[in-house]
Amino acid sequence: MTGARFLLAAAALAVVLGLGVATMTVYAEDPTPEPTPVAVPTPTPPEGDPAPDPSGGLFGFLPDPKQWAADVFNQVLVDLLQGLSNAIRGVVGSVMGSSLNFITQTPPAGSYASPTVQTLWNVVRAIANAALVLVALWGGFGLIARDQVGSPYHEAMELFPRLVLGALLANTSLTWAQLAIDANNALCQAIGQASLPAWERADSATQLLVEVIAILIYLVTSLLLLLQMLMRLALIDVLLVVSPLGLLCWVLPQTQGWARLWSSTFFGAVFTQFVQVLALKLGGSLLTELTPMAADAALLAVFLGMAVLLLTMKIPGLMRNHLGDGLGFARYFVYRQGARALEGRAGGAPRGGA
């Protein structure tokens, strides 16, 4: 019995070991297959929106740093130039819109009607009246020594009328200068309302860098014209103050060159403005006719206006000394007629008495 039980237990153990080896062989020869990956469809962007370009930005989501920096730099430059343009436009516009507009006229408040100019003119007039005594003494010495010296001195009947007329002109020089300035203003007003060409189109509200630069150059040119006109007004004031001495120099032949210099400079500075205002008016009218009001013609209008301003600034140089020479004959005729009238009155009394 004991041997039979032992055999049965050994047989059972052998069967269990055989089943385990068979199971391990089956798993080794027939492994479980891996699952096949499923393709997930890529979502397409909606129509009208372009797909993001991964190569144009950082990680395909952030903008390109180079393009972003360029846009920021252009915007900062445009804002800076617009600030400068608005400042210059405000300065020029305030001058043109005020009563002291010295671009298209010579304001009386800034010239002969100025209290400062009148005060200084009275001082110089007193000096001229005192110098009239020295001029008379020098003229008398010239009459005595003209034959010995051989210099071009006046005769007695010519010196006396010149002294009287010189004294009259020296004491009334501000009145004659006022007539000349008023005549220039009347000529400028006869042309009509004049302004800077393309001034309305020089608006710096645009965001294009090229247009902003062009407008800035135009406004700088306008500022230069403003400074030129301001220097002209200052020169006229100086000539008004020294007008008694300038006209007194006409009496003696040795100082007539100074008188001609004063008169040519004064009349040239006064009446050149009329030609400049005429150029501005003509340029503005031609600009309106030649350039349409379309947006694409704004840049062309700014450049044409700039050309007119540059031409206006060159007019004083083109007319320098020519206007004075043209008015010299008129001055000589008036002086000569006055001298002859005074000479006739002075020479008629002794003959009548005789």
How would you sum up this structure, described in words?
The chain is mostly helical. The chain has one domain (67-97, 106-345). The protein contains 10 helices and no strands. The protein has helices at residues 2-29, 65-96, 115-149, 156-171, 173-191, 209-241, 243-248, 256-290, 298-319, 322-353. α4 (156-171) crosses α10 (322-353) and α8 (256-290) runs antiparallel to α9. It is elongated, with a radius of gyration of 48 Å. The chain starts with a helix and ends with a helix. The model is unreliable at 21-32 and 349-354 (pLDDT under 50).
Keywords:
single chain; 354 residues; mainly alpha; 10 helices; elongated; disordered C terminus
Outline the low-pLDDT stretches: 21-32, 349-354
By DSSP, the count of extended strands is 0
Strand pairing plus helix content: what structural class? mainly alpha
Taking the sheet with the most strands, its summary is: none
Report helical residue fraction. Answer: over 70%
Order of helices and strands: HHHHHHHHHH
Overall form: elongated
Cα-to-Cα separation, first versus last residue: 204 Å
Number of domains: 1
Radius of gyration: 48 Å
How many alpha or pi helices? 10
Strand content: under 5%
Mean pLDDT: 76
List the helices and strands and how they pair.
Elements: H1 2-29, H2 65-96, H3 115-149, H4 156-171, H5 173-191, H6 209-241, H7 243-248, H8 256-290, H9 298-319, H10 322-353
What does this entry show, briefly?
The protein has 354 residues and is mainly α. The protein has one domain. It contains 10 helices and no strands.
